TrEMBL record:
Cofactor remark from the record: Binds a second Mg(2+) ion via substrate during catalysis.
Enolase C-terminal TIM barrel domain span: 138-425
Protein name: Enolase
Protein residues bound to (2R)-2-phosphoglycerate: Q162, K337, R366, S367, K388
Reaction catalyzed: (2R)-2-phosphoglycerate = phosphoenolpyruvate + H2O
Highest rank taxon of the organism: Bacteria
EC number of this enzyme: 4.2.1.11
Gene label: eno_2
Enzyme class: lyase
Cofactor: Mg(2+)
Length: 427
């Protein structure tokens, strides 16, 4: 009943029109599960390797080699295995690949199979994916951190920092939080439009206006929160991902979209301290670059007891790197991107390591996404209380919100909304 009969990989499109890997797993019983792999643009150097062909397909480089690896190498090796043996399935693929970074078979091939296995197992057991991942206590609905202004490498505008997000934490439930978030998002469109700004959106669905400064992005958002009838800080706070690894050049931080000035790590820490004092910021991701561990230490010592400091590019969802950060006292939270490490099992190992060491976990989409909603279930399964998955206007992002709405309704009175308590060290 639970035995893998066939694994089928194929090429489909992501939200940028680039090819990506989709995997179906068929069981002997006729049950089938499916997953699609996302793709990043501002990637960390130590991410597992996404296998791409030289040849162009659709809008970008093809994934036909990765698909062939699913069909010709991984599939035959996993046929006959029990679908609920997630760890055995994942470790078998790690062994087949044999590299440290999944560069032989491709993390996109391996993750597609790993996630499809979890979906298929949940379907075979007749339980929702979040419960399969997290067990009977999976009941916490996350604060949706909605990316409402896009800059950096996710938009062609004058804003250096990549993501300005709103966190509607003061809500009784997830559905109300989405309502508040959408009201603020729509109010932001109006306040930008009133000042003559473009309201076209970037890769993650946030507006991508040409603003005078990075500060102005926050100020527009605060105005929008108020216009929607909410109080910044009390009802809705701000989360940032400036993605500063993209700005790190010759030991400094180059403001490539705006002033073209370069700031030192100490200047950046002062900038973030100043922003924490003047704006209601509850989370800062990649406030410094992935290779600037010294700067990260200063940042953590300066702000780590007041705000959630999330490592994305610097940690790459990798347990070995996270262990080094724990030993050195770097950051207090880790971004969880399944395709940075390449299997569900290793992702859960990283999450367990973070939990044991008092680090928060913050689940994330990629800038290249699809209709796949695995991260919504993962977030509820691990109960980490917050996720980022774009704004509320692009279907590949809304798909995750819709799945969370479904989960909340399914849980009924058992569902709990995470609220402000989800954010590390925020008083
Ligand atoms: C989601 C992000 O972007 P990308 O997927 O391009 O890495 C990020 O940097 O957190
Ligand atoms: Mg990031």
């Amino acid at each position: 009943m639970m035995t893998i009969a066939k694994i089928l990989g194929q090429e489909v499109l992501d939200s940028r029109g680039n090819p990506t890997v989709e995997v179906h797993i068929f069981l002997n019983s006729g049950i089938v599960g499916r997953a699609i792999v996302p793709s990043g643009a501002s990637t960390g150097e130590k991410e597992a390797v996404e296998l791409r062909d030289g040849e162009k397909r659709y809008g970008g480089k093809g994934v036909r080699k990765a698909v062939a690896n699913v069909n010709d190498v991984i599939g035959p090796a996993l046929e006959g295995m029990n679908i609920t043996d997630q760890r055995a399935i994942d470790y078998k693929m790690i062994e087949l690949d044999g590299t440290d970074n999944k560069g032989k078979l491709g993390a996109n091939a391996i993750l597609g199979v790993s996630l499809a296995a979890a979906h298929t197992a949940a379907a075979a057991l007749g339980i929702p994916l979040y419960r399969y991942i997290g067990g009977v206590n999976s009941a916490i609905l996350p604060v949706p951190c909605m990316n409402v202004i896009n800059g950096g490498v996710h938009a062609q505008n004058s804003v250096d920092f990549q993501e300005f997000k709103i966190a509607p934490h003061n809500a009784p439930d997830f559905e109300t939080a989405i309502q508040i978030g959408e009201e603020c998002f729509h109010a932001l469109k109006q306040v930008l439009h009133d000042k003559g700004h473009n309201t076209g959106v970037g890769d993650e669905g946030g507006y991508a206006p040409d603003l005078k400064s990075n500060d102005e992005a926050v100020e527009f958002i605060l105005r929008a929160i108020e216009k929607a009838g909410y109080t910044p800080g009390d009802d809705v706070s701000i989360c940032l991902d400036p993605a500063t690894s993209e700005m790190y050049k010759d030991g400094g931080y180059f403001f490539f979209s705006s002033t073209e000035e370069t700031k030192s790590a100490d200047d950046m820490v002062r900038l973030w301290e100043d922003w924490m004092n003047k704006y209601p910021i509850v989370l800062l991701e990649d406030g410094l670059g992935e290779n600037d561990w010294e700067g990260w230490k200063t940042l953590t010592d300066t702000l780590g007891d007041k705000v959630e400091l999330v490592g994305d590019d610097i940690f790459c969802t990798n347990p070995a790197i996270l262990q080094q950060a724990i030993d050195k006292g770097i950051g207090n939270s880790i971004l969880i991107k399944l395709n940075q490490i390449g299997t569900l099992t290793e992702t859960l190992e990283t999450i367990e390591l973070a939990n044991r060491n008092n680090y928060n976990c913050y689940v994330s989409h990629r800038s290249g996404e699809t209709e796949d909603t695995t991260i919504a279930d993962l977030t509820v399964g691990i109960g980490c209380g917050h996720l980022k998955t774009g704004s509320g206007c692009r279907s590949e992002r809304v798909a995750k919100f819709n799945q969370l709405l479904r989960i909340e309704r399914e849980l009924g009175s058992a569902a709990k909304y995470a609220g402000i308590g989800a954010f590390k060290n925020v008083k």
